[in-house]
From TrEMBL:
SUPFAM superfamilies: P-loop containing nucleoside triphosphate hydrolases. Residues 21-255, 272-509 form the ABC transporter domain. This is ABC transporter ATP-binding protein. The keyword Chloroplast does not apply. GO terms for molecular function: ATP binding. Belongs to the ABC transporter superfamily. It holds the Pfam family ABC_tran. It comes from Aquamicrobium soli.
Length: 518
């Protein structure tokens, strides 16, 4: 059992708590890639430990080795000081080491309680339905995790599903918990709640490893950080010994500049226009009287919590959904409800949020994916498509063995780069871009921001949809807020008023009015 820190003071327990999990001199190669190169990593009782690094640095591989999904080619894994050899994640769980992946492993049509006991094969372990309810309630109280045991998982938000995954781990009595980019799926309010839970778990003597790209999270919650680059550990220290700049430099090997570059020119003619767009509310909130104009040479950012109509709006603009009312024009051509090909032909490119669903075919190579939306089709001109892919891999600094690499094998951030390369590399003049930096490391974020600003300066019209308010604020020339399928606020970026935007995000549309949230 883990030794408990004397108090929950940040940083103190992390430096001195008992060693709960370690990797010593661990290496792991995949075909052509040394994903972990003589890695040392340690997790102590009472700490929240950030595991950082650029896309493809080897973080997920290390987490997978420590939690039983992969075995190391060489080196040693220890739990509570004892060498272990995990043959599966179940083995690791039996030793108190668990992981919560970005894509949850829950059965949608089962209840929360059923999911919690599912697959729990501990010998002699039995929990009656009443026992499970009690355990969920007790753990919920202790760690601030409110969930209804009888709810069906399909009805739950992503934040609630994450809580179910955490309770599942707590029921299995983990001492060490890895979380792979846990805030990527959360709304801002849910992030604070998650962090409070993680802090309570650490205060209780558990060790938490947080795989993340978000430096603000690292500095607000973590006690220590380990930074990886090219499969190696390049820095490991208490958080007080780092600054955002030194962490970014360790990750990338150079200085990173994320300062915005506002447009210096007045925007040109309207190139993307939506007027009176309406969609019936169904399983989503619908769209209600959306009027929007985007001009050549400007970035318009749409802020709001996911699920407030942004996805429907993006899909209507990109021709993937037909609105019930209203009209969309791209470069003066009416493309309303005419399908994605018509929108693309009129000059619109779309980077969807759901990169492996709507965006890319995970079973195909990089080269084939880059040709998926071209008129010629990917069966045509294979050597041309390979050349194009090789150029994109170089330009976007994608970590891959070459153009024939299957997209499924790439790390999350590199998948995002392939999608961006295809859409931003097209000849479009209007770009609808949803969460372009999701899953990207600091160098990737810098790259994408520069790219969008370069395109804008060359006269492209960009609609940026993002839940990351900082991203919207830093990149946009104009800001539009959506709530419940309505536009509740619009302003120029220079007039950015955090309080007004915060109110608009929660539905307040000025003059004492709240948007109709049917
Ligand atoms: N199953 C696999 N088969 C082949 N190569 C793999 C496999 N898993 C990872 N790799 C490669 O190993 C390297 C490290 O990948 P890993 O997923 O560990 O990186 P990461 O730091 O987690 O990146 P990201 O932040 O983008 O998720 C990458 O070059 C990746 O393409």
């Amino acid at each position: 059992m883990a030794s408990r820190p004397a108090n929950g003071e940040r940083g103190r327990a992390g430096a001195s708590g008992a060693l709960l999990a370690e990797a010593r001199n661990v290496s792991k190669a995949f075909t052509g890639v040394l994903a972990n190169d003589r890695v040392d990593f340690e997790l102590r009782a009472g700490e929240i430990h950030a595991l950082l690094g650029e896309n493809g640095a080897g973080k997920s591989t290390l987490a997978s080795i420590l939690t039983g999904l992969y075995s190391a080619d060489s080196g040693e894994i220890r739990v509570a000081g004892q060498p272990v050899s995990f043959r599966s994640p179940r083995d690791a769980l039996a030793r108190g080491v668990g992981i919560i992946h970005q894509h949850f492993h829950l059965v949608d049509r089962f209840t929360v309680a059923e999911n919690i006991v599912l697959g729990d094969t501990r010998q002699g372990f039995f929990m009656s339905p009443a026992g499970i309810r009690r355990a969920v309630a007790d753990l919920g109280d202790r760690y601030g995790l409110e969930i209804a045991p009888d709810a069906t998982v399909a009805e739950l938000s992503l934040g609630e599903r994450q809580r179910v995954e955490i309770v599942k781990m707590l029921v299995r009595e983990v001492d060490v918990l890895f979380l792979d980019e846990p805030t990527a799926v959360l709304a801002p309010g849910e992030v604070e709640a998650l962090f409070a839970t993680l802090r309570r778990m650490a205060d209780d003597g558990k060790a938490i490893a947080l795989v993340t790209h978000k430096l603000n999270e690292v500095f607000s919650i973590c006690d220590r950080a380990t930074v990886m680059r090219g499969g190696k550990v390049v820095a490991a220290a208490a958080i007080e010994d780092f600054t955002p700049e030194t962490i970014a430099r360790a990750m990338v090997g150079r200085d990173v500049d994320l300062k915005p570059r506002p447009s210096t020119r007045a925007p040109g003619a309207v190139v993307l226009a939506a007027s009176g767009l309406g969609m019936e509310a169904g399983h989503h909130c619908g769209l209600h009287g959306i009027d929007l104009e985007i001009r050549a040479g400007e970035i318009v950012g749409i802020a709001g919590v996911a699920g407030n109509g942004q996805l429907q709006l993006a899909e209507v603009l990109a021709g993937l959904q037909r609105p019930d009312a209203g009209k969309v024009t791209v470069n003066g051509t009416d493309v309303t409800g005419k399908g994605p090909h018509a929108a693309r032909k009129a000059g619109l490119a779309y980077v969807p949020e759901d990169r492996l669903g709507t965006g890319l075919a995970s079973g195909l190579s990089i080269a084939d994916n880059l040709m998926l939306t071209s008129d010629t089709g990917f069966l045509f001109d294979r050597s041309g498509s390979r050349k194009k892919a090789a150029a994109a891999i170089g330009e976007y600094r994608v970590k891959a063995s070459g153009p024939e690499e299957v997209v499924r094998r790439l790390s999350g951030g590199n998948v995002q780069k392939i999608l961006l390369a295809r859409e931003l590399g097209s000849q479009a003049s209007v770009f609808v871009v949803a969460s372009p930096a999701r899953g990207l490391d600091v160098a990737g974020i810098e790259f994408v921001r520069n790219l969008l600003q370069d395109y804008r300066d060359r006269g492209a019209a960009i609609l940026l949809i993002s839940e990351d308010l900082d991203e919207v604020r830093l990149l946009s020339d104009r800001i539009v807020v959506m709530h419940a399928g309505h536009i509740t606020h619009q302003c120029a970026a220079v007039d950015y008023d955090e309080a007004a935007i915060g109110l608009a995000i929660s539905g307040y549309s000025g003059g004492g009015r709240f948007a109709d949230t049917r």
